[in-house]
Write a structure and sequence with these properties.
The structure is a homodecamer of 119-residue chains. Chain A is an alpha+beta fold and 119 residues long. Chain A is 21% helix and 39% strand. The first copy, chain A, is elongated, with a radius of gyration of 15 Å. The interface between A and B is medium-sized, with 20 and 16 residues.
Chain lengths: 119, 119, 119, 119, 119, 119, 119, 119, 119, 119
């Protein structure tokens, strides 16, 4: 993936920074392209995080995820890449990404990655 | 949100203060208005708490939640606001709010916040 | 509730007192009456306990729960009352009651209470 | 309901008038107000129709259904009213409305009405 | 059952008598008493009808069904009795009752009865 | 099966013979023995009938079905045998038996048979 | 498929030929090989038939279906082939085969075929 | 949609033309672009047909459906277009398309269209 | 229960004794007889264990569980008896039995017991 | 099993070795042969691991699992064998195999095994 995607991500101020609370965002319409075959892949991205000073603005998140639509990328790398981009944008206290892809060849894959300390 | 909502909340005496026990209330008919677009949002509010000396009276809770019906408010703020209002009213030993909103733009959001020490 | 209900509860000897094991009883046909409106309430009572020297006899438990049928009582008090009556009858090592009521006014309530030390 | 609601409904040309085909629209976020108690009601509206020369534009349908948000109306009348308004706007070959409301007092109601001949 | 129950049923005018449409009411909190054993029975009553000039008022229907709470009656007779009482009250074009009872002795029973011509 | 089973079946008078209505009985705890291997088989028996002058008494039906517990019989024959015995006992206007057995060797079998004219 | 498979099928006498009744057999462990790629395919075969003078013996049916395990065959042809073999073996009054295959490339296929007149 | 898509569709010979049988293909990974907003839409396409002399080759069908990925098109037109393209390619005795799209603005749409006579 | 049942249990050597791993066996076709009423009871037995040097042979386990078929025994005792017999036969590092019985009198019971240290 | 299977497994470099993250692969189309009866067994293999320097390439994993298709092996041994082969190929920080087999004789078995320290 040659271009940066994360510049489209917007954030807004967390008005409750004195409290550790959790925001979960589920995006079941994620699609990218297999780098080997050129065939589309489909999956559900779940993002769970404890905000510090900033929250992800949801419309910009939707547009960010749409940028993967015609991009070739392995499952394992896509999940870690999204985690890195979001963690850089909102600097959360803790964030987890779960990327669950639809079956290929009768095999179904889910990748889960986390940054930040356990709360 | 310019006006206070919490004055409508009523409480009654907890007759079992010597025991830590849990009350869970699920309100699947929550609706408010998006502050940007003016469009209605819909969601389910789940409240889980260990009472100390007072319990929330359920009919007043229903009326309290109805006050958000025509109010503009972000998801993250609505959840924390409900938690603050209820915690002030019943002074629980511990209370958690889970606010799960229906999808917008193919994206589904849930906000969870807690006050009080772990039991 | 003026009369005692618990006198109907029967117990039998636990033949395996040397082992901590769990008995779960689910009674989905519980009904009582709202003390304010006189309207019937419906719910499911789940009892989970580690017996010490006695077990609850199931037919007597059924008859005990039927005594609430025409009795007025708040949810929170009914759950704690059942726990007290059963714990007095069988003296368990640990016992939990979960009382889940059907929705009223679009709001669903569950009360959970425990006696005895964690096992 | 003193004012007309249907003026907001927009339609577009059906490009396949030579074929009888079915469009189903499900709107699970319908809410109105009980004319007796002033309490909000919630329900799911399902619209199924065979278009003739016009189709309902979906965004205008959403705005039309939102107009019931603060209006008092019985279930039976709301369902028939929506059917009348939509049938007037698109002149379908056949149209069915199913309005399923959430429980009140432990009772759940669904109203179904149809215009046009069986296909 | 010595007393009449049906006098509590209220009706209101059907504002759309020119159209055959269907009203379905589901009451999952029905309970009566077994005439042989005196034990409570539980079930779900589903009423489906095409109104003519009158509709059943739902709150009065709820109160009507509650009158069976402490009455002894066989399943087969309860279903037919409810059908007779409701059909007398609203004079529907067609009405079906489905009474599904919870299991007794590992056996589950459902009784279905209809009045009026097929529509 | 050398002995008659049906002598245990009891019936009671149908108080609504003027109406064609349906009684469905589901017995999910049916068990018999495979005549070839001697291994137990398990299944769910569903009986659906329109009574004429008599109804099946449910407790006697339960005892009747228990008589198959240690009897060897093929699936196809058990279903038809139950249908014959019940139809002889109650002389229904119409009766259907559905016998659904749990899988053996990864294969699941359901047998359905009917007597009486379509209603 | 060069060899005949159907010679393994065994049948037994239908003891109730005077009655039209239905036997449904579900075999969820069917597997064959894709003739193009050599990759295994998986599916569920459902057989529904009204017997005339013979019924399929279930163990022989299981062995018959296992013969496809290492055979290359298109979905559409496998379903029709099974129907032809079974219909030849038992000469049913009516028989339907439904073959539902697990997804390949995100696409799921079901083939349904019938012999004999409608009953 | 300026270009033809259907040229990619391949067919193979139906080896059982003497029998009316049904092939159902479900493609839950369909995606196109909203012609108004440029935002991606997602849906499930179900194709059900009775073949005459040709069947749709599944890999070419998958590639055909992928051509909609970056194309702008209304729901109603996409469904009818797919039906026209497929019916032209395989000349079925009967074919139905059901296109079920994921919710937008809390509203879910399904379009169903058919060619050919009822079988 | 006068006779020993456990002599039918067979075991085989665990080829991976160097590793703590878990074997779960679910037997949903368990049936015994109520010692008070003589009526059959039905339930699902779940066995979960970490083997040491021996594993339970599954066919012998099936035959062992069938021995309860015509035996009278209370729920609580049956679960503990199965645990004792199996633990004696395979000497596991840890073993749990969960016995879930179908409802009687509207009440559902599950008994869970464990031997061996937590892993 | 006389031949090695694992030589077909391919791996690729983990580009995020600095992070402990989890990859879950579910393969519901696993089949092998019972070593006693020669009958096919079916099951679902779930692999969950934290990669160190290498990840399993999914197509090679699919081909590896297909090698068990005509091989005789006990459930308990198959699960441990797959774990050993995969752990040798990718040297994970932690890996768990769960092998859930379809019922035989009314009994369902699941084997779970783990290598590596808890994370």
């Amino acid at each position: 993936m040659s271009e940066p995607f994360a510049d489209i991500l917007e954030t807004f101020e967390n008005e409750y920074p004195g409290r550790d609370y959790t925001i979960e965002v589920v995006a079941p319409e994620f699609t990218s392209v297999c780098p080997r075959t050129g065939q589309p892949d489909f999956g559900t991205i779940t993002i769970r995080y404890v905000p510090d000073r900033r929250c992800v603005e949801l419309k910009s998140l939707k547009l960010y995820l749409q940028r993967f639509r015609n991009e070739g990328m392995f499952y394992e790398h896509a999940a870690n890449r999204i985690l890195d981009d979001l963690a850089t944008a909102v600097r959360p206290r803790r964030m987890t990404i779960e990327a669950a892809f639809t079956p290929r060849g009768g095999i179904r894959t889910t990748v889960t990655a986390t940054v930040g300390k356990e709360t």
